[in-house]
Amino acid sequence: MKINESIQCSIKNCVHHAQDENYCTLNKIKVGTHESNPTTKECTDCDSFVIK
Ligand code: SF4
């Protein structure tokens, strides 16, 4: 799998994670929110996440 050095990520439970290194392998990701008024980083989500 080719890592995307522009997208660091530590979510090894995601099918797109490089596993050996803490990077995503997608060319791009979508970041979103589950809140109506996001105010902290905990309000943000990687919408490209897919459970492994
Ligand atoms: S899709 Fe999102 S959660 Fe999955 S490895 Fe890439 S950045 Fe991480």
Written account of the structure:
It comes from Lactonifactor longoviformis DSM 17459. Pfam families: DUF1540. This is DUF1540 domain-containing protein. The strands form 2 sheets. This protein has a two-stranded antiparallel ribbon with strand order 1-2. Strands 3-4 form a two-stranded antiparallel sheet. It has 52 residues and is mainly β. It is built from no helices and 4 strands. It has a domain of 27 residues. It binds iron/sulfur cluster.
How would you summarize the topology of this molecule?
Blueprint: E1 4-8, E2 23-24, E3 31-33, E4 44-46
Antiparallel strand pairs: 1-2, 3-4
Question: What's this model, at a glance?
Answer:
By secondary structure, the protein is an all-beta fold. It contains no helices and 4 strands. It starts with a strand and ends in a 6-residue tail after the last strand.
Which features would summarize this protein structure in a list?
52 residues, mainly beta, two-stranded antiparallel ribbon, two-stranded antiparallel sheet, 4 strands, 25% strand, elongated, binds iron/sulfur cluster
Number of helices, where a helix is a run of at least 4 consecutive DSSP H or I residues: 0
How far the N terminus sits from the C terminus, by CA atoms, comes to 15 Å
Largest sheet: 2 strands, antiparallel
Mean pLDDT over the residues: 97
Give a count of the beta strands, DSSP E runs of length 2 or more: 4
Structural class determined from secondary elements: mainly beta
Low-confidence stretches: none
The Rg value, from CA coordinates, equals 12 Å
- Provide the β-strand percentage band: 25-35%
Helix content estimate? under 10%
H-E order? EEEE
Tell me the overall shape: elongated
- Order of strands across the main sheet: 1-2
Name the bound molecules: iron/sulfur cluster
